[in-house]
Specification:
Layout lengths: L9 E5 L16 E5 L13 E7 L9 H11 L1 E17 L3 H17 L9 H8 L6 E11 L5 H22 L12 H18 L2 E10 L5
Helix pairs in contact: 2-5
């Protein structure tokens, strides 16, 4: 984005500075990075940005966090400024038996124990942005169906790789020990389950819906 708009100043913001480019990685001179926490207060004054882009916080924000986050993003937007959200709905469509098993595990951990919302992206996200509490206008929602597995070409292969990484990162939380019990499979069983899940997604031509939401902060009279 910084390369595409050289006359703009682009800020990359994250709570974890380890995700920022290293000192030897080339970065455009108009691109800056700053550590900040969206749920407390971003390190920018009111009405600072013409455009805000936020993506992939579906594993980081709980049901109660989303209104807080959107209010903070609105705070730093200029009147008349625009926001774009890019989030997936974590429901696998055309799911087989193995996929449903995997998603039950994820649902137990992420929804029941951590308070996340698998279905926030989409109409729930749109309704919240349009609500009196948030107060965006000109809200538009677009859906992108992304294939999972080689049947979808390079995009599908990349999506499958991303999902495997997510499952691997969640593994310790899903299965906190190595005892062989129905609710806590061994490491080997987990790996076999993930690989069979990928094959099943290929067989069923499974896909996941991503949503792009754009909205505008009302202009001040």
């Amino acid at each position: 984005m910084a390369k595409e708009f050289p006359n703009a100043t682009v800020y990359g913001i994250d709570i974890n500075p380890e995700l920022f480019p290293g000192p030897h990685q080339p970065v455009p001179s108009n691109c800056l990075f700053t550590q900040s926490n969206l749920l407390t207060r971003l390190s920018f004054p009111n009405q600072y940005f013409d455009f805000v882009y936020q993506r992939f916080l579906y594993l980081g924000l709980t049901v109660d966090d989303w209104p807080v986050a959107l209010k903070e993003l609105k705070r730093v937007m200029k009147p008349g400024g625009w926001i774009e959200l890019f989030e997936p709905c974590m429901r696998v469509h055309r799911a087989g038996a193995r996929t449903r098993e995997v998603m039950r595990w994820c649902s137990r951990l992420l929804q029941e124990e951590r308070g996340l919302d698998f279905d926030f992206a989409g109409e729930r996200m749109k309704r919240l942005c349009e609500s009196e509490e948030i107060g965006f206008q000109n809200v538009k929602l677009e859906r992108l169906s992304i294939p999972v597995g080689p049947w979808g070409g390079r995009v599908g292969e990349a999506m499958a790789e991303n999902m495997v990484l997510i499952f691997q990162n969640l593994q310790s939380a899903l299965m906190p020990d190595d005892t062989v019990t129905p609710n806590s499979p061994t490491q080997k069983a987990f790996e076999l389950m993930v690989q069979s899940w990928i094959r099943e997604c290929e067989e069923h031509k499974s896909y996941i819906d991503y949503y792009i939401l754009t909205a505008q902060r009302p202009s001040e009279n």
